[in-house]
Amino acid sequence: MSRTVQLATLARLPARRAMASSARGLATEVHRETAAPEPPMMRKQRAEGDIGSVFASLSGEAEQPHPARFADLKRHIAGDEANRARLVSSFRTLTSRLAAAASEIERLGTDAVPTVSYESLLARDPATVAAIKRSGTAVVQGVVPRTEAETWLQQVEAYVAANPQVRGFPADDKQVFEIYWSKPQLAARAHPRSLAAQRALLSLFSLPQSAEVSLTTISYADRLRIRHPGDSKFALGPHMDGGSVERWEDPAYRAVYARILEGRWENYDAYELEARAKANQNLYDGAGACGVFRAFQGWTSLSDTGPGEGTLRVYPLLREMTAYTLLRPLFREKAPRAAVSREHYLAPENWELDIDSTAFPQAPLGRSQEFNDASHPHLELDRTMVSIPRVRPGDQAWWHADVIHAVESIHRGAGPSAVMYIPAVPLTHLNAQYLRDQRACFEARCPPPDFPGGEGESSFTGTGTPSDIQGTDGRRAMGFEAFPVTSDMRRGEQAVRRAANDVLGL
Ligand SMILES: [Fe+2]
Predict the structure, then answer these.
(1) How many domains does the chain have?
(2) Quick one: where's region Disordered (predicted)?
(3) How confident is the model at residue 60 (pLDDT cuts 50, 70, 90)?
(4) Terminus of the chain with fewer CB atoms < 10 Å: N or C?
């Protein structure tokens, strides 16, 4: 690891933390800090906290009106008369499609989410691929051997027991832990079958020759949860990761959804990767912001958990939900819900283009995009948010970056509902910068850049270190080994690998 990054890490730490570091033999670096050049790019550490600060609804914040410029943004997006007419017509076809989809999803329930085998995913079985792409979500069975995953849960529990000062949500009954660097997490992130599943998921995306994105996977250090039976506090409502208003406000992010915003949602392809790789998902330095582009968010199950046992819920039709999310702020109701029947309220005739107001429903600045029945009525979330099928230890749940997801409000099961959050993250220029900063945090045993800051695990016992990461692929995914560049690779692939190696000092 380069000195610049090491120094930069220490520069980000509070004084107490730096003293603790010097006590571990890094006094020289601290001393030289004043003479060091400004680090190339180092994020400031976030405030201490837990997952409760990420969601406006969990932190009890009321929805605030957006600044006036958001009305201009709507007019800009709505475009000329022809585009506006297409938007109106496409909103009509979309809402009637959503009504049919709600009945279809309600009938299927949990089966609306495909369960596929690790082998069929790796073989890119056409039916498997089609099912995952359509729904945007999947349970992949048997990624990690069951006994290994069960051992990881025991190790996590022992780590928590050895470090009772660990932060977590909710504070009085910790279940979502501010733990990133435990040895079982390092093992899970570097597991060869897990890395292979991630690469297979990334391969569902298409890229032009020149796109400077690699479908190799890199590790994103995230939390873990061990939800207790009976819990009703970790009730994350329906939301989308990857920012909120950024989807409209950032021109690069908006470009991902160009087809939808041109009034042609049926032609929207959620699996084109080039534009997404350039999107800025974090314009407001939000507590919920993600510093990398995660093509799929996912977790690895450490427990046997079925529907009703505190598991994940999703809206299981990717294209439709994305189109509605993007179009929703451009429309408003005519008659309010209380004044008319449900049918009348949802009917296309009751909705008109809204390019005057600043309303972006449930998309607060610096927070996650959230959804509820009032803000996004045509999704009929009370009928369409389905629990994913039963998972066993070593199975993984995956959901596309734009999937609306939630956690069951009550855990009615008898055992822990335990997962490690491990997404599928391609190598991009922005992601390489994050990887460099994340590596620095790992070496300092502080929380990764995206997460609430503080001392993290620096004073914990039994924390993992870089030498605990097994295998070249696992080490490379964490930024400790260079990405090889060969002549048979796409031009863009070669370019981004070289750039990443530079950023990482490898
Ligand atoms: Fe989420």
Answers:
(1) 2
(2) 21-44, 449-474
(3) low
(4) C
